[in-house]
Design goal:
Layout (H helix, E strand, L loop, with lengths): L3 E6 L3 H9 L6 E7 L4 H10 L3 E12 L5 E7 L4 E6 L4 H5 L4 E4 L8 E2 L1 H8 L18 E4 L8 E7 L3 E8 L4 E8 L3 E3 L3
Length: 190
Protein backbone atom coordinates (compact mmCIF):
# COMPACT_ATOMS: atom_id res chain seq x y z
CA UNK A 1 0.00 0.00 0.00
CA UNK A 2 1.09 3.52 -0.63
CA UNK A 3 1.77 6.35 1.71
CA UNK A 4 -0.65 9.27 1.57
CA UNK A 5 0.87 12.63 0.94
CA UNK A 6 -0.88 15.91 0.76
CA UNK A 7 -0.07 18.94 -1.22
CA UNK A 8 -1.78 21.62 0.77
CA UNK A 9 -1.50 25.32 0.27
CA UNK A 10 -2.27 27.65 3.18
CA UNK A 11 -5.00 30.19 2.81
CA UNK A 12 -4.05 33.81 2.58
CA UNK A 13 -4.64 35.63 5.84
CA UNK A 14 -5.50 39.00 4.23
CA UNK A 15 -8.14 37.34 2.02
CA UNK A 16 -9.73 35.59 5.01
CA UNK A 17 -9.79 38.82 7.05
CA UNK A 18 -11.20 40.83 4.14
CA UNK A 19 -13.98 38.31 3.63
CA UNK A 20 -14.86 38.32 7.33
CA UNK A 21 -15.00 42.13 7.37
CA UNK A 22 -17.32 42.16 4.32
CA UNK A 23 -19.67 39.74 6.05
CA UNK A 24 -18.77 36.94 3.62
CA UNK A 25 -19.90 33.41 4.25
CA UNK A 26 -17.87 30.84 6.09
CA UNK A 27 -15.30 28.92 4.09
CA UNK A 28 -16.10 25.31 3.28
CA UNK A 29 -14.34 22.49 1.45
CA UNK A 30 -15.45 21.69 -2.09
CA UNK A 31 -14.31 19.06 -4.58
CA UNK A 32 -12.97 20.47 -7.83
CA UNK A 33 -12.99 18.49 -11.07
CA UNK A 34 -9.91 19.11 -13.24
CA UNK A 35 -8.63 18.20 -16.67
CA UNK A 36 -7.06 14.71 -16.35
CA UNK A 37 -3.47 14.76 -15.06
CA UNK A 38 -3.66 18.48 -14.22
CA UNK A 39 -4.38 18.23 -10.49
CA UNK A 40 -0.90 19.35 -9.36
CA UNK A 41 -0.79 22.22 -11.83
CA UNK A 42 -4.24 23.41 -10.75
CA UNK A 43 -3.16 23.26 -7.08
CA UNK A 44 -0.13 25.41 -7.89
CA UNK A 45 -2.27 27.98 -9.72
CA UNK A 46 -4.75 28.02 -6.82
CA UNK A 47 -1.90 28.81 -4.42
CA UNK A 48 -0.90 31.75 -6.63
CA UNK A 49 -4.47 33.05 -6.26
CA UNK A 50 -4.36 32.65 -2.45
CA UNK A 51 -6.88 29.80 -2.46
CA UNK A 52 -6.33 27.01 0.08
CA UNK A 53 -6.28 23.63 -1.65
CA UNK A 54 -5.66 20.01 -0.70
CA UNK A 55 -4.51 17.31 -3.10
CA UNK A 56 -4.38 13.88 -1.41
CA UNK A 57 -1.71 11.71 -3.02
CA UNK A 58 -0.20 8.26 -2.57
CA UNK A 59 3.04 6.60 -3.60
CA UNK A 60 3.05 3.84 -6.18
CA UNK A 61 5.92 1.80 -7.57
CA UNK A 62 5.72 1.18 -11.30
CA UNK A 63 7.95 -0.99 -13.45
CA UNK A 64 8.65 0.38 -16.92
CA UNK A 65 9.19 -1.80 -19.99
CA UNK A 66 12.96 -1.66 -19.44
CA UNK A 67 12.35 -3.18 -15.97
CA UNK A 68 13.30 0.02 -14.21
CA UNK A 69 11.38 0.57 -10.97
CA UNK A 70 10.10 4.10 -10.47
CA UNK A 71 8.32 5.50 -7.42
CA UNK A 72 5.53 7.88 -8.44
CA UNK A 73 3.42 10.26 -6.38
CA UNK A 74 -0.09 10.09 -7.83
CA UNK A 75 -3.40 11.76 -6.95
CA UNK A 76 -5.55 9.56 -4.72
CA UNK A 77 -8.64 10.71 -6.63
CA UNK A 78 -7.63 11.23 -10.29
CA UNK A 79 -8.94 14.52 -11.74
CA UNK A 80 -10.05 15.83 -8.33
CA UNK A 81 -8.67 18.08 -5.64
CA UNK A 82 -10.27 20.01 -2.79
CA UNK A 83 -10.48 23.75 -2.15
CA UNK A 84 -11.56 25.67 0.94
CA UNK A 85 -13.45 28.76 -0.18
CA UNK A 86 -16.33 31.05 0.65
CA UNK A 87 -19.23 31.61 -1.72
CA UNK A 88 -17.66 34.74 -3.21
CA UNK A 89 -14.42 32.97 -4.13
CA UNK A 90 -15.85 30.52 -6.67
CA UNK A 91 -14.72 32.71 -9.57
CA UNK A 92 -11.10 32.50 -8.40
CA UNK A 93 -11.29 28.71 -8.59
CA UNK A 94 -13.16 28.48 -11.89
CA UNK A 95 -10.66 30.83 -13.54
CA UNK A 96 -7.70 28.56 -12.83
CA UNK A 97 -6.22 26.77 -15.87
CA UNK A 98 -7.12 23.08 -15.76
CA UNK A 99 -10.17 23.49 -13.51
CA UNK A 100 -13.38 22.36 -15.20
CA UNK A 101 -15.96 22.79 -12.43
CA UNK A 102 -16.72 22.72 -8.74
CA UNK A 103 -18.61 19.51 -7.97
CA UNK A 104 -22.25 19.88 -6.97
CA UNK A 105 -25.78 19.49 -8.23
CA UNK A 106 -27.29 21.46 -11.12
CA UNK A 107 -28.01 24.50 -8.93
CA UNK A 108 -24.92 24.95 -6.76
CA UNK A 109 -21.64 23.40 -5.60
CA UNK A 110 -22.02 21.01 -2.67
CA UNK A 111 -19.56 21.19 0.23
CA UNK A 112 -17.47 18.23 1.35
CA UNK A 113 -17.77 17.59 5.12
CA UNK A 114 -14.80 18.87 7.13
CA UNK A 115 -14.56 15.44 8.75
CA UNK A 116 -13.80 13.86 5.36
CA UNK A 117 -10.90 16.23 4.73
CA UNK A 118 -9.67 15.83 8.33
CA UNK A 119 -9.72 12.04 7.88
CA UNK A 120 -7.75 12.24 4.62
CA UNK A 121 -5.17 14.47 6.33
CA UNK A 122 -4.99 12.37 9.50
CA UNK A 123 -2.18 10.06 10.61
CA UNK A 124 -4.62 7.17 10.27
CA UNK A 125 -4.38 7.53 6.47
CA UNK A 126 -0.71 8.43 6.32
CA UNK A 127 0.67 5.02 5.27
CA UNK A 128 -2.39 2.93 4.56
CA UNK A 129 -4.35 4.57 1.79
CA UNK A 130 -4.56 3.76 -1.90
CA UNK A 131 -7.23 4.02 -4.61
CA UNK A 132 -9.92 1.33 -4.69
CA UNK A 133 -11.48 0.59 -8.03
CA UNK A 134 -13.01 -2.83 -7.57
CA UNK A 135 -16.67 -3.60 -7.95
CA UNK A 136 -18.91 -2.40 -5.14
CA UNK A 137 -22.25 -3.87 -4.06
CA UNK A 138 -25.06 -1.85 -5.63
CA UNK A 139 -22.96 -0.88 -8.64
CA UNK A 140 -24.20 -1.27 -12.23
CA UNK A 141 -22.10 -3.94 -13.98
CA UNK A 142 -21.87 -5.62 -17.37
CA UNK A 143 -20.93 -9.20 -18.25
CA UNK A 144 -17.78 -9.03 -20.37
CA UNK A 145 -17.36 -12.65 -21.56
CA UNK A 146 -19.37 -15.69 -22.52
CA UNK A 147 -22.85 -16.29 -23.85
CA UNK A 148 -24.34 -13.47 -21.76
CA UNK A 149 -21.73 -10.91 -22.88
CA UNK A 150 -23.02 -7.33 -22.83
CA UNK A 151 -25.89 -7.91 -20.42
CA UNK A 152 -26.12 -5.29 -17.69
CA UNK A 153 -27.35 -5.61 -14.16
CA UNK A 154 -26.64 -4.73 -10.55
CA UNK A 155 -24.13 -6.36 -8.20
CA UNK A 156 -25.98 -7.38 -5.02
CA UNK A 157 -23.52 -9.60 -3.13
CA UNK A 158 -19.81 -10.38 -3.06
CA UNK A 159 -18.04 -13.40 -1.63
CA UNK A 160 -14.55 -14.77 -2.13
CA UNK A 161 -14.73 -16.33 -5.57
CA UNK A 162 -18.03 -15.28 -7.11
CA UNK A 163 -20.43 -12.38 -7.24
CA UNK A 164 -24.22 -12.34 -7.13
CA UNK A 165 -25.35 -10.54 -10.26
CA UNK A 166 -28.94 -9.40 -10.79
CA UNK A 167 -30.08 -9.20 -14.38
CA UNK A 168 -32.94 -6.79 -14.91
CA UNK A 169 -35.18 -7.08 -17.95
CA UNK A 170 -36.36 -3.47 -18.08
CA UNK A 171 -39.03 -4.02 -20.69
CA UNK A 172 -41.05 -6.33 -18.44
CA UNK A 173 -39.72 -5.07 -15.06
CA UNK A 174 -38.52 -8.50 -13.95
CA UNK A 175 -35.27 -9.59 -12.30
CA UNK A 176 -33.17 -12.76 -12.11
CA UNK A 177 -30.13 -13.42 -9.91
CA UNK A 178 -27.13 -15.48 -11.00
CA UNK A 179 -23.72 -16.31 -9.50
CA UNK A 180 -20.90 -15.24 -11.78
CA UNK A 181 -17.12 -15.00 -11.46
CA UNK A 182 -15.68 -11.58 -10.62
CA UNK A 183 -13.36 -11.76 -13.63
CA UNK A 184 -16.40 -11.83 -15.95
CA UNK A 185 -17.87 -8.52 -14.75
CA UNK A 186 -16.89 -4.93 -15.46
CA UNK A 187 -18.34 -1.67 -14.12
CA UNK A 188 -20.79 0.25 -16.30
CA UNK A 189 -19.67 3.83 -16.77
CA UNK A 190 -22.49 6.26 -17.50
Amino acid sequence: MGEIRAESYPESQPVAEAEASRGGTERQWYAVFTVPQNEKSAATHLALRDVESFLPTYQSVRVWKNRQRVELVLPLFPSYLFVRIGRRERGKVLGVPGVLRIVGNTREPLPVPDTTIEFLRSDLCSNKIEPYSELVVGQKVRIRDGAMRGLQGTLIRKNNSSLRFVLTVDLIHQHAAVEIGAENLEPVVN
